[in-house]
Amino acid sequence: MKTDPFIYTFLATDPEAFRVLSGGLTLTGEYVFRSLTLKGIERHLDGLYEPQGHEGPVYVVEFQAQPVAGAWYNLLTKIGLYGEEHPDRDVRGLLILLQESDLPRWPSRVGGPDAVATAACLERFLPQWLEREPDNPFVAALAPLVLTRDEDLRGRAPRLWRTIQEAPVAPPVRAALSQILEYWLFERFKSLTEEEVWAMLNIFTPLEETRAYQSIFAKGEAKGKAEGKAEDLKRLLARRFGHLPKWAAARIDAASIDQMDAWLDGIFDAETLDALLGPPPARRRKQAG
């Protein structure tokens, strides 16, 4: 499955996502999650938790859906480069893997609980968490990654969906978790039609009331949906790139739903806000002159 963009969407929802995906690491104090390109060296950090207003550790997060022999070295390089730019911060790394067998062999002195870089293999803990925290929507959204038997996933899908829909979380978080779960179900059950997947999820609820076109990734046409999508897009952009300038917010408010969908599709590929939305108006006038 093409998991990477959705893992980082998941991490951007809430600090609880970090606890679940890391196997129990907790963030103390306020943090902001974003993506970052280190200037001058073109190393892109897909996931970065930075403390806000306190001296807690910075976490550089890397997710590997497939075995990569140099994954530890890649993560250590990014830790070092970020630390070189911010020598006053405690920088740590987290390598997230699906399976224990994907854990790189070298170097040998990383991966321990007290090391500068640690690993979280989902198969180690997530199946147990599904039983231990059955009402946790963040655990439910990740279930397709560790429920390897299609029969098991098919049987648990309605409960996973209800867990997300009934959880006491903010609407944007619910929308993101719903979309993540949907995506992985469609990826796993590619032989099923859309209607068949939705029948698997929504046993008692009419399709029209529960489809995830109510989420920020849907293709709705109503004005209210467009406004909601614009607000959620602004939130995700602020998490990734930091404070959203007024020109960017205005451009999003004036955009069509199709354009917002295109920006959402590219949010994890663009290295800067300008690269995604285009340059601000002032820069355009200067170039024209």
Describe this structure in words.
The model is unreliable at 203-222 and 282-289 (pLDDT under 50). Helix content is 50%, strand content 12%. 31% of the residues are buried. The protein folds into three domains: 1-131, Trna Endonuclease, Chain: A, domain 1 (3-Layer(aba) Sandwich); 133-215, no CATH class; 224-278. Helix 6 runs antiparallel to helix 7 (171-188) and helix 10 packs parallel to helix 12. It is an alpha/beta fold. A five-stranded mixed sheet has the order 1-2-3-4-5, sandwiched between helices.
Task: Produce the secondary structure layout.
Layout: H1 4-11, H2 15-22, E1 31-38, E2 43-51, E3 58-64, H3 71-85, E4 91-97, E5 117-121, H4 122-132, H5 137-142, H6 150-166, H7 171-188, H8 194-201, H9 207-210, H10 223-241, H11 246-254, H12 257-265, H13 273-277, H14 281-288
Parallel strand pairs: 3-4, 4-5
Antiparallel strand pairs: 1-2, 2-3
Features:
globular, 289 residues, 5 strands, 14 helices, five-stranded mixed β-sheet, 50% helix, Trna Endonuclease, Chain: A, domain 1, alpha/beta, disordered C terminus
Determine the mean pLDDT.
84
Structural class estimated from helices and strands: alpha/beta
Specify the CATH class of the largest domain. Answer: Alpha Beta
Please, how many domains?
A: 3
What is the CA-based Rg, rounded? 20 Å
CATH topology of the largest domain: Trna Endonuclease, Chain: A, domain 1
Detail the poorly predicted runs.
Answer: 203-222, 282-289
Principal-axis shape: globular
Amino-to-carboxy terminus distance: 47 Å
Note the run of SSEs as H and E. Answer: HHEEEHEEHHHHHHHHHHH
The percentage of residues in β strands lies in 5-15%
Annotated CATH architecture of the largest domain: 3-Layer(aba) Sandwich
Helix content: 40-55%
- With strands numbered from the N-terminus, the spatial order across the biggest sheet is 1-2-3-4-5
Q: Outline the biggest β-sheet.
A: 5 strands, mixed
Number of helices: 14
> Using DSSP, what is the number of strands?
5
